Amino acid sequence: MMNLVIMAVALLIGAVAQQVLPGLTLLGQAKAPLVLSVVLYYALHRSLLLLVTAAIVGGVLCDSLEALPMGYSTTVFCVLGIVAWLYRNVVFSARGVTHMVFGLLAGLGLTFGLYAILLISAESLREVSWFWVALKAIGTALLGMILAPIVFAVLERLDRLTGNIAVEPSS
Description:
Number of helices: 6
Structural class: mainly alpha
Distance between the termini: 30 Å
Largest sheet: none
Number of strands: 0
Strand content: under 5%
Number of domains: 1
Low-confidence stretches: none
Mean pLDDT: 88
Shape: globular
Helix content: over 70%
C-alpha cells in the first residue's frame, strides 16, 4: 500500500514541478524529465506491475498538463520503462552512474519517441525543424542525466523511511 502512496506523491510532485520549472531556451525548450525519472526508478527497483502503473499514471498526468493528445506520453513511458526493466538485471541498478546513463538514454528516447508518435499520427504536428528536435532531445537527455540520480536517491530514501525497502544493517 505504501508503494502506491509513495508513487502517487512522487508522480504528482514530479508532474507539477516539471510544468512549473522553465524550459532551457538554448536547448530547444527542453523540460526537466522528472516524471520519466520516477518511472525509471520503478523500472530499475520494483516489479513490472508497479512500473506499468507508474508509467500509465505518469503518462496521463503529463498528457493532462501538457498540450499532447492523451496516451502519447503513456505509450513512450511504458516502452522506455519496460526496456529499462528488461535490462535491470544486466546493470548495477543501485549505482549513480547507471542512473545517469539510463536518465540520459531515456531523455533521448522520450523526445524522439514523442515526436515520432506525433509524426506518425499527424496530430498537432506543425512544421518542426529536426535541428530543434535534436537540440531538445540533447537538452532533455542532459537534464535526465543530472536529475535521475537525484530523483532515485530521494525515492529510495522515502522507500526506506516508509519500510518499502528493508534497511541493511551496517557491519
